Amino acid sequence: MKTCKFTTTALAGALLLAGVPSLKAGLTGAIFTTTSNGTVVNGNQYDSPCSVYLNGGPGLHAPPTAAGLPDGDYYFQVTDPSGKTLLSTDPVSNRSFRVTGGVITTYTGFGGPVHVTGTNLNDLPSAGITIALANSNCTSQYSDFLATPNNGDAYKVWVTPVKSFVGAPSNVENSCGTGCFHGFVPSASKTDNFKVNGAVATFCLTVQKVDGSFLPVAHWQFSVTDAVGGSDTHFTDSTGTITVCGLVSGTYTVSEADAVSDTGSTVVGLIVNTVPIAPVTTTSFTWVAGQPAPVIVFQNCLVGGSCPGIGLQ
């Protein structure tokens, strides 16, 4: 009987003929899942699909560019651990980001609901961000990516360079043949596994910072503290907003780091779920399953001036 030898070179050539990048095209750097502010390194257990964020490169306290992905544009996807079942539900083009200086700096997705981002505290002073694996349709009742068929509630996130993707970015699913998973080639991709406990009821908290004219205030610092004293720091984005998802039932306190803005205002008005209340810089609330997601707006108001958002004249 004759033995057929199929070398790595031959396999790479065959894949190229099939439109799949060569197995020799490796991707340096690393990715891992985390929370919205990047302080959890390689987390593998989450209470909600909405609370899983993508980070690239360094771990906590490491230099910002340590193990960073090469600069360029990338796509990501969520699958079951085997990679056979695609769980992401939006077009590939909507699952994209850019790496600059070894850190993720920009969400570049389009063609679907946005994937919210967080300020990556581990990347400071670099302008690094984290990106939610689920898009903004994600709530405690609905996950953007589908439930995994894995009995252990395990998922896999993939990242691949745009130039290595096989298929049409406008599609959700891309059939690309043997050795390729929905347009992602393992040898040209980075992956990380994580788990989600879908039985726990969770919610998303939205906090906004605006000035006296109700214009957004970017990069404003807030802390979110739970009933047992656990506290996370967050910053508003360019729209003056932060969204923190995956929070479980309980009592929370939201605080501003600084009540004085660069416009000289020293009074902060507060709007909780559209209801104006007396000016404060800290507020607490309790959430239980079935309640609407809380939205809190902190408004800078000039001393002795008007504050129309909360009805102060």
Give a brief rundown of this model:
With 313 residues, the protein is mainly β. It has 1 helix and 19 strands.
Word description of this protein:
The longest helix is centred in the first third of the chain and has 10 residues, at 8-17. Strand 16 and strand 17 form a beta hairpin. This protein has 2 domains: 25-196; 202-310, Immunoglobulin-like (Sandwich). The chain is mainly β. It contains 1 helix and 19 strands. The model is unreliable at 1-25 and 260-267 (pLDDT under 50).
Outline the fold blueprint:
Layout: H1 8-17, E1 31-34, E2 45-46, E3 53-56, E4 72-79, E5 96-100, E6 103-107, E7 117-119, E8 129-132, E9 154-161, E10 190-196, E11 202-210, E12 221-226, E13 231-235, E14 241-248, E15 250-256, E16 267-272, E17 275-277, E18 282-287, E19 295-301
Parallel strand pairs: 2-10, 11-19
Antiparallel strand pairs: 1-3, 3-8, 4-5, 4-9, 5-6, 7-8, 9-10, 11-14, 12-13, 12-15, 15-18, 16-17, 16-19
Keywords:
single chain; mainly beta; six-stranded mixed β-sheet; five-stranded mixed β-sheet; 19 strands; 34% strand
Average pLDDT metric: 78
Helicity level, as a percent range?
under 10%
Unreliable stretches:
1-25, 260-267
Overall 3D geometry? globular
Counted beta strands: 19
Largest sheet composition: 6 strands, mixed
How far the N terminus sits from the C terminus, by CA atoms, comes to 94 Å
Number of helices: 1
Gyration radius from CA atoms, angstroms = 22 Å
Count of individual domains: 2
Order the strands across the largest sheet as they lie in space. 2-10-9-4-5-6
Structural class: mainly beta
H/E element order = HEEEEEEEEEEEEEEEEEEE
Strand content: 25-35%
